[in-house]
Amino acid sequence: MFNGCQTKPRLSVFCSTRQLYAMLVDDHNKKTLFYASTLQSSVREDPPCTTIEAAQRVGEALVQACTDLQICEISSYDRNGFARGERIQAFEAPISRYGLLAR
User: Fold this and answer.
1) What is the pTM of this model?
2) Which InterPro entries does this one have (predicted)?
3) Is residue 6 within 8 Å of 28, Cβ to Cβ?
4) How would you write the pLDDT of the chain (103 residues) with one tens digit per residue?
5) Which domain holds residue 57?
6) Could you tell me the end-to-end alpha-carbon distance of the chain, in angstroms, rounded to an integer?
7) Which helix (H) or strand (E) holds 14?
8) Is residue 3 situated within a structural domain?
9) DSSP for 31-97, written as a single string
């Protein structure tokens, strides 16, 4: 059912009532290649920001991880049924510019 691999991982996002969590998953090797959330102090505290700004920073961190891991494409984007609220839109902005999401 899941189809992520090391060069073309699955992007999974979970949005709680206040936070956003994102990860790149290599389903084939059962590994998480990248993980970040709006709760991480490295995302939130330098400089201090809102949850929406932190969601955008998570997207920017994902783009950096993709660059470092030489990932140019994802196999699928799983929003886990969440609507495109403000946090998800802020998260998607940098990864859309990078070209991971179809417009």
Assistant:
1) 0.90
2) Ribosomal_L18, Ribosomal_uL18_bac/plant/anim
3) yes
4) 568 888 889 999 999 888 999 999 999 999 999 999 999 998 988 788 999 999 999 999 999 999 999 999 998 888 877 777 899 999 999 999 998 886 5
5) 10-98
6) 24
7) strand 10-15
8) no
9) EEEEEEETT-HHHHBTTB--HHHHHHHHHHHHHHHHHHHT----SEEE-TT----HHHHHHHHHHHH
Q: Is 33 a member of any domain?
A: yes
The answer to whether residue 2 sits within a structural domain is no
Looking at residue 80, which CATH number applies to its domain? Answer: 3.30.420.100
* Dihedral pair phi/psi, residue 21, rounded to 5°: -125, 135
Structure tokens belonging to residue 30: 């059962």
Q: 15: helix, coil or strand? A: strand
Contacts of 7 (CB under 8 A, 6+ apart): 70, 71, 73
* Residue labelled with tokens 């990932």: 71
Residue 67 domain flag: yes
